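We store sequence with structure; for instance:
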Amino acid sequence: MKDARRVSSREADWDALQGFIDDEHIRAAHRRLLELGARPPDPRSMADRLDRMSNCYERLQANGFIDDGRLTRGARHLLEAYLNPVQGFRLELAISDRRYESRIWVAANHVGFIEERTRIQLLLRRIHPGVLPTVIVDMLGIGPRRQIDTDATLDVPTQYITDLIVSPFRGRPGQFAEHVESTFPTVAADLRKNRWSCWMLSRLDITPDDFVGRGSLAALDTPSALLGVELRGKNSRLVPLNSQRLWMLLADGLGVAS
């Protein structure tokens, strides 16, 4: 593997690679403990772990991720942010009856790494500093949009939003449509026709010892309108957006503005 920025991977291969990286960290931690005089680990448990590692070694080596028991230069380049994250994000996206989930890591130098699950494949992507909002907008499929001609906002049960995102098969777009019809009639019509997408981007700050939640950004997108979702506990507020405002919210939420 050369210094790749985008790799298509099988789910099992990515799981194996993450396991290999975890084992690297465990081995390093064991070495540090032994240097401090700690008791060596149980040889039987270590043997079991090495057996599991050897089972996935050949596939990882064939795909250019590891060589001679170590991550290759190309793999470390691709995984730079995954190996040394300071921020993490979880992107959940539902499009009518389909659901996608991606995870994002950002390093201190603002290089990013995305584990992107599409309908047909798993993509591992290295992202240049400063372009993460553009990549997210592309993943969400949001093009230039005008804000609908209303200043109205509407409070809705947060459960409607989470149902659409987490369980689009069991979501209640029809019931949701009834709730928004008086304020956003065109959005209600789109919901009834099953022409919608809904997404949530959650942010974590990562330290060596902990993960700290930093809030979420969500939106409901239909052909007739783009509505931001201000999450407020049991009830959330729908607010009309345009593309420029969405970009600003994403840049701020992703920490790019700072």
Remarks:
- The chain has a mean pLDDT of 80.
